[in-house]
Design a protein that fits this description.
The structure holds 2 protein chains of 2 kinds. By secondary structure, chain A is an alpha+beta fold. Chain A has 3 helices and 9 strands, in the order ααβββββββαββ. Chain B contains 19 helices and no strands. The chains are: A alpha+beta, B mainly alpha.
């Protein structure tokens, strides 16, 4: 075997010095970049393999709309409540909407029985958990007790603290920082059927609709 | 907006060129053995590259979408078997073919522009090493969990150092000593550096600013186990090979342009340097996505970035590489361009290459910007008419530009000719062996 070409290639001191410089720079850069990558690798593995349980807690705020109106016997009326992003505090998201319809028998006629009230939340384009089992879209009352309806807007929201597993705070919060839920029109339909005592005429009733919008801000703490 | 994939085009181009080059190299029995052997190495490199891209193209067909398997998955060995037999088979094939291209590139570096050794023993060692490497390394990578694929960075940096030294030596002799013949070898070394390391060179600024590491940390977060320091060093061997190639070539070409004149090689090198800036800025903009795998959920790149990447990295790796290799083959007369029989095949090769690249480029543009098919068909027709009308001149430009000077600068061992038949046979067997091995490995349910 003849390697004379190799010797020919390294017979020039000037190019050898430049190549040696190139090799030195190469080795230094290799050490520098590898050190950095090793450091990053340790950080990443620390995240991936470290303690990954996080406690999520929720700061709650509520906003209330109230509307009182008089409905005639047999009347059905729709009430719209606009929930706009500007009404929600920074960092908060709408978790659920609680609607209470209350009334009393106000005719003042002795032995006049309480009227019947039927209430429904009408599905709109609002992003919410319309078919969730924790959502109550309709209710009624014939004893003057309050009707309570509930629209769960944010998925799985119950306002209770919970523990989850995640690589980091960012990922732990990911499920709770989605925008858009609970923003839009919340429509409630209320129908009145009056009940009158014999020989009396109870033709209307005062109904109060109370809409409570509960918003939340999530916090994550490593357990 | 979906972009068309260039991978099937690259597969087709590389395979056709590889076959033609091997035919031409085996045919020229009266030519210098060293040149013929270098041409054979080029041919087999293109065949292995073509088969590699073919495997990736098959994955695209299986997934029915452009391949989501980045080149880094194969280069750095960060793959995990999915249990899908067809998918895994083609990925393993890609690993095997990629290993073949590394050893062939190193063999080319040992033979071109300078034949670093001579004699039957040396040539047998080179050929035997290629064969043994192709037989042993692909199974080794597959059986050891793919990460060892990154260790092949040693081959890449070895070839890079050889070509860089040849380039530096030629530059000194040409510019300082006034030796006009020295440019020829320097140009050859520079072009081969671009062809072999181009896909790494365009990330030079991201390498030195450590953005490549930031990006790779996202990949590391998906690994089942912590990576060893050897693996991390190997990963950086690739990046540093690209960075040093850009650094030396850019400084060298700037110096040469200042002292002499700007050349085609200078323009290619400067283009890659500028592309490095652009890629760095895209890295900065996409930083959140780069680290999203461990700071959040792995996020997808925006369409604009995919388009940019296809137009730069895709074209550079998939289409420019075979073009540069063919240019070197013809310019340095590694294959005989004088005989009528070869000349016809050469014309076919050049026209085929230009037509495939131009039609692929037009299709690619059409997939990215909303221009009508009528218009792109017209552009293609113009291209075809141009190539046919100017076929003689294009071929002549490839063949004659300084090729006599370039050709005479390539010298090497002549005793090698007797081994050509055996080498062709051995490479054919290793190619089939890798394909069969990968099929067997996955069909036996290993990794399922």
């Amino acid at each position: 075997m003849d390697f004379s070409t190799v010797f020919e290639l390294v017979d020039d001191d000037r190019s050898n010095r430049l190549t040696a410089l190139t090799l030195t720079v190469t080795l230094l850069l290799l050490a520098f970049t590898t050190f950095d990558l090793a450091k990053l690798n340790n950080e990443v593995r620390g995240l991936v393999e470290g303690e990954n349980t996080w406690e999520l807690s929720f700061d709650l705020e509520s906003m209330t709309y109230t509307e009182t109106t008089i409905l005639a016997d047999g009347e059905q009326r729709q009430f719209d409540f606009e929930i706009e992003p500007g009404q929600i505090s920074d960092g908060y998201r709408v978790g659920e909407i609680l609607i209470t319809i209350s009334y009393t028998e106000t005719s003042g006629i002795p032995f006049d029985p309480p009227d019947s009230v039927y209430a429904n939340i009408i599905q709109t384009s609002m992003e919410a958990q319309w078919s969730d089992e924790n959502t109550t879209l309709s209710g009624s009352s014939n004893d003057a007790s309050d009707i309570t309806l509930k629209l769960l807007t944010y998925p799985d929201f119950d306002g209770q603290a919970q523990n989850i597993t995640a690589l980091n705070e960012y990922q732990a919060l990911q499920d709770w920082v989605m925008d858009g839920f609970g923003i839009g029109t919340c429509s409630v339909s209320v129908e009145l059927q009056t009940q009158s005592a014999p020989f009396t005429n109870d033709g209307d009733e005062e109904i109060t609709i109370n809409v409570e919008v509960i918003s939340f801000k999530v916090n994550a703490n490593r357990v | 907006m979906a972009t068309e994939s260039l991978i099937p085009i690259a597969a087709l181009t590389n395979l056709i060129l590889g076959v033609i080059i091997i035919i031409l190299a085996n045919r020229d029995e009266h030519r210098m053995g060293h040149k013929r052997f270098t041409a054979l190495l080029f041919g087999w490199f293109l065949i292995f590259s073509g088969t590699y891209y073919m495997a990736l193209a098959m994955i695209e067909i299986i997934l029915a979408e452009p391949v989501s398997l980045g080149w880094s998955t194969i280069v750095f060995g960060t793959y995990e078997l999915t249990g899908d037999t067809a998918y895994d088979t083609f990925v393993l094939m890609a690993f095997g073919m990629r290993a073949g291209t590394y050893i062939l590139l190193l063999a080319i570096a040992l033979h071109y522009p300078y034949d670093l050794g001579s004699g039957d023993g040396w040539n047998s060692i080179i050929m035997g090493s290629i064969g043994v490497y192709c037989l042993v390394v692909p199974p080794l990578i597959i059986f050891t969990g793919f990460n060892p694929a990154a260790f092949q960075g040693i081959l890449v940096i070895a070839g890079t150092v050889i070509w860089l030294h040849i380039y530096i030596r030629s530059l000194v002799h040409e510019v300082v000593d006034g030796d006009e013949t020295a440019r020829s070898t320097g140009k050859g070394a520079a072009l081969l550096l671009v062809a072999s390391n181009g896909y790494l060179m365009i990330w030079w600024l991201s390498t030195i600013t450590l953005f490549n590491n930031e990006w790779f940390s996202g990949v590391l977060s998906l690994q089942p186990e912590s990576s060893s320091i050897f693996f991390l060093t190997s990963v950086n061997l690739f990046w540093i090979s690209g960075f040093m190639s850009v650094l030396v070539l850019t400084l060298g070409e700037l110096y040469r342009s200042y002292k002499r004149s700007i050349s085609m090689v200078s323009i290619v090198v400067f283009f890659i340097t500028v592309m490095g800036f652009m890629n760095y800025f895209s890295d900065v903009v996409l930083y959140d996505i780069l680290v999203s795998c461990y700071e959040a959920e792995c996020a997808q790149y925006p369409v604009a970035y995919i388009v940019w990447n296809t137009l730069t990295e895709g074209i550079l790796i998939l289409l420019l590489q075979p073009l540069v290799l063919v240019y070197i083959l013809i310019q340095y007369q590694l294959i005989d361009t004088s005989s009528t029989e070869n000349r016809n095949l050469l014309r076919v090769m050049i026209l085929l290459l230009l037509l495939i690249i131009s039609s692929a480029f037009i299709e690619l543009l059409q997939s990215m910007i909303p221009i009508s098919q009528m218009l792109t068909a017209a552009f293609l027709a113009i291209g075809v008419a141009f190539f046919i009308g100017w076929e003689e001149k294009i071929t002549a430009w490839f063949v004659t530009t300084d090729s006599d000077g370039d050709s005479s600068s390539i010298i090497g061992d002549e005793s090698i000719s007797t081994l050509f038949g055996k080498f062709t046979m051995m490479m054919s067997i290793t190619l089939i062996y890798i394909i069969v091995f990968c099929c067997l490995f996955t069909s036996m349910g290993v990794g399922a």
